[in-house]
Amino acid sequence: MNSSEVVDSGLNSPTLEALLTAIARLKTGIESLPPQEAVDYYHLLTAISVRFVPDLYEAYDACVASILATEKKKVTCSRSCSACCSHYVSSVEPFELIALDLHLKKRENYADLILASYNRTVTYEKILKAEASEEKPGAVAEEADDRALYRYFLRGRSCPYLEKDGSCGVYEWRPMACRMFFAESSPRFCAGKALASPWNRNFQVELPDVAEQALARCSRLLEGLELPEELFPGIVAVNGLFGRYEGPPGREVPSDSNGPEVSLP
Ligand code: SF4
Ligand code: SF4
C-alpha cells in the first residue's frame, strides 16, 4: 500500500511493553524449533505462528490505537469500508503468512484463493517491471514502486479475501500491513483517482523503532525459508515450498476483475 503520510509516534510504555513481550514470545517460539531440514519443521512452525500471532495482533492493535489517540487522529474507517482493499498489500511478515495460510486452508475455495492471489501478483509484477523500465538513470527505485502501486490500485482489483458485503474475509488474520492503514478523509477519497486528490488523507501508522526492529529480528529467523514478504506471492510460496499446492495444469485463474487472466504452469 502507498500513502501520503506516515504517523510515527511515541507510545505509552505499558502498551509498548505488551507488544515487545508478544514479539519476544513469538521469537522464543521460533528459536525453539528444530533445524529447517527437520521433517516436522513446518508443522511446528505453523503451530508456533498460530499460537503467538493472535497475541501479537492484539498487542499491535492496542499500540496502533494508542498512537491514533495520542495523535488525535479522527479516523473515518469502518469495518465494511473497503476501497483500500484494492491496494496491493506488501510487507507482510513470514509468520503472518504461515498463520493466514492455515486459516485459508479451511476454506472450500482455498485453491481458487491461491490462484487469485497468484494472478494478482503477476499483474503487479508486470506493472512494476514496466514502470522500472521507463525509469531514467539515477532515479529513485521507490518512485517506480509508488507509481506501480498507484497504477495497480486504479485497476480496481479487490483483494481475494474481500467478501461481497465489503468486509474482510480474514479479519482476525489480516496482516499488520492492513491494520496500520487508515483515512481521516471521507471514504470516497480512498477510491479510484480521488486517491491522488488533495482531499485524500490516507495515512499509515508506524511503530516505534524498537518494535519494528524486534519484528525484523523475528522475521530474520525465518530467512532460510526464502518467503517473499508480500502477502500474495508469500502464500503461494508457502505452499510451493512445502509441496502442498500445485496449480492444476492449464487451469485458468478465476478473474478477480478486469485484468488479464493468467494460468499457472
Ligand atoms: S482507508 Fe479509506 S477505504 Fe479503507 S477503511 Fe479507511 S476510509 Fe474506508
Ligand atoms: S486482507 Fe482483508 S483488510 Fe487486507 S486487503 Fe485483504 S480484504 Fe482488505
Write structural notes for this entry.
The chain has 265 residues and is mainly alpha-helical. It has a domain of 178 residues. The chain contains 8 helices and 3 strands. Strands 1-3-2 form a 3-stranded mixed sheet. Helix 1 runs antiparallel to helix 2 and helix 1 runs parallel beside helix 7. It is globular and about 50 Å long. The C terminus is likely disordered.
Layout of strands and helices, then pairs:
Blueprint: E1 6-8, H1 13-31, H2 41-70, H3 94-104, H4 110-133, H5 141-154, H6 176-179, E2 181-183, E3 202-206, H7 209-220, H8 231-241
Parallel strand pairs: 1-3
Antiparallel strand pairs: 2-3
Helix pairs in contact: 1-2, 1-7, 2-3, 3-8, 4-5, 4-8
Bound molecules: iron/sulfur cluster (2 copies).
Bound molecules: iron/sulfur cluster
Q: How many strand segments?
A: 3
Low-confidence stretches: 248-265
Strand order of the largest sheet: 1-3-2
**pLDDT averaged residue by residue:** 85
- The structural class is mainly alpha
Spell the H/E element sequence: EHHHHHHEEHH
- How much β-strand is present in the residues? under 5%
User: Could you tell me the radius of gyration in angstroms?
Assistant: 19 Å
